[in-house]
Design a protein that fits this description.
Structural class: mainly alpha
Low-confidence stretches: none
Oligomer: single chain
Number of helices: 10
Radius of gyration: 21 Å
Order of helices and strands: HHHHHHHHHH
Number of domains: 1
Mean pLDDT: 85
Largest sheet: none
Number of strands: 0
Shape: elongated
Length: about 280
C-alpha cells in the first residue's frame, strides 16, 4: 500500500469519527443546556454515562474483531471484506443523515429532551433522586454509544483491508478534533458553527461514500459476487490514477453502483429539504 493510500484512508476515518463525535456533542448539549442552579449536579451522571459508553464501545470493538476474525478462518478473505464493505456503506449512509435529517433532529434529540423533562419532573418524589441520577446516566450513555457503535461497524472494513495501525491513526486524529470541540462547548462554553461543520463533513463523507462504493463493487467482482463487464470505450479514457484514488474503474458494475449511490445521496438530500418543518 502506498503512502497516499494510507493518508487517504486515515483522513476518511478521521472525518467519520469527527462527524460522529460532533453529533454526540450536539445531543449532549441539548440534554445539558437547561441545567441551571441546583440542576447542574446532573452533569456528573451524564458524564458518567458517557464514560461507561466509551468503555462499552471498546468492548464492542473487541467483540466485533473476534467475530470477524473467527469468520475469516472459515470463509475467504475476499468474501469477508466484501461483506464488511457493504456494512460500512450502509453505516455511512445512516451517518450522513440527509434522508433522515428531520427524523434525527426532531426524533433522536427530542426523545432525549423528553426523557430529561420526565426525569426532572420526578425529582423530589419518593426515590426520585436515584431515579433521576440513573436516568441522566442512561441519557449520557445512549448519546455516546449510538455513535460509537456505528463507528465500530464502519471501521471493520478498513481494519480488514488496512490493518489496525491505519485505523488507530484515523481514530486518534478524529477523536482529537472532536475532543477540541467538546472542550470548547462544555468547558469554555463557546457556541460553534455546528451546522456548517456538519455540512462540510457531510460533503466530505459523500465523496468517501462514492469511493467506497467503487471499491466495494470491485471487491464483489473479485469475490465473484458480481460479473465483470468492461466498457471498451472507457478502458483508455479512465486513467489508472482514477482507479487508485477514486475507485473509478471502466466496468458497468462499478460505475453503475457509483452512479446509483450518487443519485441516492442527492435524491435523499432533496427529499429531506422538501419535508415540512425540516431545518435548513
Amino acid at each position: 500500500m502506498t503512502l497516499g493510500d494510507q493518508a487517504s484512508a486515515t483522513l476518511n476515518i478521521a472525518v467519520l469519527v469527527f462527524r460522529e463525535g460532533l453529533e454526540s456533542i450536539l445531543v449532549l448539549t441539548a440534554v445539558t443546556a437547561s441545567f441551571k442552579g441546583r440542576e447542574t449536579k446532573f452533569n456528573r451522571p451524564v458524564a458518567a454515562g458517557v464514560a461507561v459508553a466509551f468503555v462499552a464501545t471498546l468492548l464492542t470493538w473487541s467483540i466485533a474483531v473476534r467475530i470477524l476474525d473467527d469468520i475469516g478462518q472459515s470463509v475467504s478473505a475476499l468474501a469477508v471484506q466484501a461483506a464488511t464493505g457493504l456494512l460500512a456503506i450502509l453505516v455511512l449512509l445512516v451517518v450522513m443523515n440527509w434522508f433522515f435529517h428531520k427524523l434525527y433532529w426532531t426524533g433522536w434529540i427530542s426523545l432525549h429532551n423528553q426523557k430529561k423533562r420526565e426525569l426532572l419532573s420526578s425529582e423530589g418524589k419518593e426515590r426520585g433522586e436515584l431515579r433521576v441520577v440513573s436516568g441522566m446516566a442512561l441519557l449520557g450513555f445512549t448519546s455516546f454509544y449510538r455513535e460509537g457503535f456505528e463507528v465500530v461497524l464502519f471501521l471493520q472494513s478498513y481494519r480488514l483491508k488496512l490493518g489496525n495501525l491505519i485505523v488507530l491513526y484515523g481514530v486518534i486524529f478524529g477523536g482529537l478534533a472532536a475532543s477540541i470541540v467538546a472542550i470548547l462547548t462544555f468547558v469554555v462554553h463557546r457556541h460553534l458553527p455546528y451546522r456548517k461543520m456538519l455540512v462540510s463533513t457531510g460533503l466530505m463523507l459523500a465523496v468517501v461514500l462514492l469511493v467506497m462504493v467503487g471499491e466495494e463493487a470491485q471487491e464483489m467482482q473479485l469475490a465473484r459476487w458480481l460479473p465483470v463487464t468492461e466498457v471498451p470505450k472507457l478502458v483508455h479514457l479512465i486513467p489508472s490514477w482514477m482507479g487508485l484514488w477514486l475507485s473509478v474503474f471502466p466496468t458497468v458494475e462499478t460505475l453503475g453502483a457509483q452512479v446509483l449511490a450518487g443519485f441516492l445521496v442527492f435524491g435523499s438530500y432533496l427529499t429531506a429539504r422538501s419535508l415540512p418543518g425540516t431545518a435548513r
